[in-house]
Amino acid sequence: MGLFILSFRPDEKIRKYLKGVLDMNYNQIAKDILTNVGGSSNVKGLTHCFTRLRFQLKDSKKANKETIEQLEGVISVVESGGQFQVVLGTKVNNVYDAIVPMISIDETTEISEEKVSIWNRILIAVSAMFTPMVPAIAASGLLKGFLTIAKILAAKQGVDITVNQTYTLIMAGTDALFYFMPVILAYTSAKVFKANEFIAMALGGTMCYPSVVALMTGKDVVSMFGVTITKASYASSVIPIIIGVFILSYIQKFLEKVIPEVLKIILVPGLSLLVMLPATFMVFGPIGIYIGNAITFVYTGMMNLSPAICGAFIGGMWCVFVIFGAHRALLPIGINDVAQFGHQNLLAFAGAANFSQGGAALGVMLKTKNKDLKTVAASAAISASVCGITEPAIYGCNLRLKRPMIYAIICGAIGGAIMGVGGVYGDSFANNGILTFATYAAFGMKPFVYYLIGVGVSFFGAMILTYLFGFDEMGDKKKKANAAAEVETAELEVASELKVNELDPSEADLLIYSPIEGEAVSMTKVNDEVFSSLALGNGIAIIPEKGEVVAPEDCTVTLIYPTLHALGLMLDNGVEMIIHVGIDTVQLEGKHFEKFVEEGSHIKKGTKILAFDIDALKKDGYDTIVPIIVSNTPVFQQVSGISGKGATLEKPVIAIKKNQ
């Protein structure tokens, strides 16, 4: 944690950045979030969707939800489906990229102290399998919408562009994702079930193989090893490959246990595929097809019973499902419908919910006098209406204000019912927003008009209800909470600094020895406030007498900055360390420095890592002091530097007391 700091240049521009002069410090947000979820050691897994970081925590009781909700950039925090979800809106990618280098996830570690229900495990698995596909699915829907518009405009001129080769090639790009769904799902499922991704993809590829497709769609009986098998079209299928990869993961684990190490690289994948091919076509593939047909039958039955009720249910409840993460369990229905039948209406009805959330957010923006809330609501309304991303609207204003959420549910249900009555379908699985309107024009103007009416009722109805009937203003609670949090943080930092200075080395749980020979001085004496303020963590500074950096303990070299002036270490005892040679030495771009190990190496105590020319640095006008920072200081009770002359690898310079 904290090793991202190595990438900075400690000049005036970056000092201003670290002081918060710039609007958004994603690294600091990431660090604050990670600290308040219990630190890197409490993170079992981390993924993200369009708007949320989705943590799997070993112990959710260690997470400080209230503090995280007050952090800069955080919209809300949701605990749902076995996940601790931090809602960030459109900046989630930046924060995710910043937080990943700070964590080290041990996939073999089991979640302790809390039991995750089977239902939550299923939701997490479904989310992990389908979420990575969402950008490609959205791109497919957008392109298909453009093709639909082009086809309609061309038809008005008496031109059939569907016979055009360009149209055919682009259409292939929109359909390929769904045709090869078994291959793509094989990869994501293997990630979830911890099977070999490429064996899984080979299994999925077999399902789409032209000769296999021809056999399954032909008139002749198909048999394998003399046994007649059920004929089914597996190209574009969803459930059969998921079941197949699930079974593959257990076959693989069994083979890895019984096959000698020297033969595993060949026999485990070979035997896995040999077992799974007949097992899939004879048993698990047909079972998956039957399950898929059953799900389709139930959903179709609801539609046949009453399209209006089905549309109202999805349109009204979809965003409630989003809150609990349950909507992801429904996504395979729509994906399967597009893959199998070339159309779906699940997301049409969900679109009513999306637009109602956007409309309610717009109503909040028009009604509120709170400038901060007005800004959040305006952004959320655009996000929901244009892109179909509703989390900023749900968590940023509607759910927090309660009544706008109710108005959105009511209007979403009415809009969904209108779409159900009108027989609305889309020809792709596209997230609902203004950009994907054309997707729902593919099956004629009548259903498209019903779609537009449903969207209009959902959006403008929720906006008008929110504006007319209002809500309880939030006031400036969040500002007050932030101010209180800042005061408390400042007090804690002062108290922490005083307590650190009082730590007796004899009472320390860990003693860190000097990686550099020289004189150890307090970090507060470093002539750079980025270090002296302890903003990056506590530690010690060394005035070097020998231009060498060695490993203070057995450790892993996690990062060596390209200019060689700074490096990061993960000590085997759990301490994360930054060693920064000199002040502003990044400007030398590696001059006067030499490295002796590679990034990622695990090295023993005393191993030479870096050499630098002290005299040359001084001659060029650089301060040669070396700050040594414990970058994961927040996870310990106390971190204290031990000043004194004669710092060596045999003399401790940092004392650490662990949390009890």
From TrEMBL:
PTS EIIB type-1 domain boundaries: 27-109
Residues annotated as catalytic: 49
Subcellular location: Cell membrane
Molecular-function GO terms, alphabetical: kinase activity; protein-N(PI)-phosphohistidine-sugar phosphotransferase activity; protein-phosphocysteine-trehalose phosphotransferase system transporter activity
Residues annotated as domain PTS EIIA type-1: 528-632
Domain PTS EIIC type-1: from-to ranges: 124-485
Gene3D superfamilies on file: Glucose Permease (Domain IIA), Glucose permease domain IIB
Predominant localisation class: membrane
Keyword Oxidoreductase belongs to the record: no
Record-linked InterPro entries: Dup_hybrid_motif (IPR011055), Glu_permease_IIB (IPR036878), PTrfase_EIIB_Cys (IPR018113), PTS_EIIA_1_perm (IPR001127), PTS_EIIC (IPR003352), PTS_EIIC_1 (IPR013013), PTS_IIABC_b_glu (IPR011297), PTS_IIB_1 (IPR001996)
UniProt keyword terms in alphabetical order: Cell membrane, Kinase, Membrane, Phosphotransferase system, Sugar transport, Transferase, Transmembrane, Transmembrane helix, Transport
GO CC terms in record: plasma membrane
Pfam families in UniProt: PTS_EIIA_1, PTS_EIIB, PTS_EIIC
GO term, biological process aspect, one: trehalose transport
Topology versus the membrane: Multi-pass membrane protein
Membrane spanning stretches: 122-147, 167-186, 198-217, 232-251, 263-285, 305-326, 405-425, 448-470
Protein name from the UniProt record: PTS beta-glucoside transporter subunit EIIBCA
Organism: Lacrimispora algidixylanolytica
Upper classification of the organism: Bacteria, Bacillati, Bacillota, Clostridia, Lachnospirales
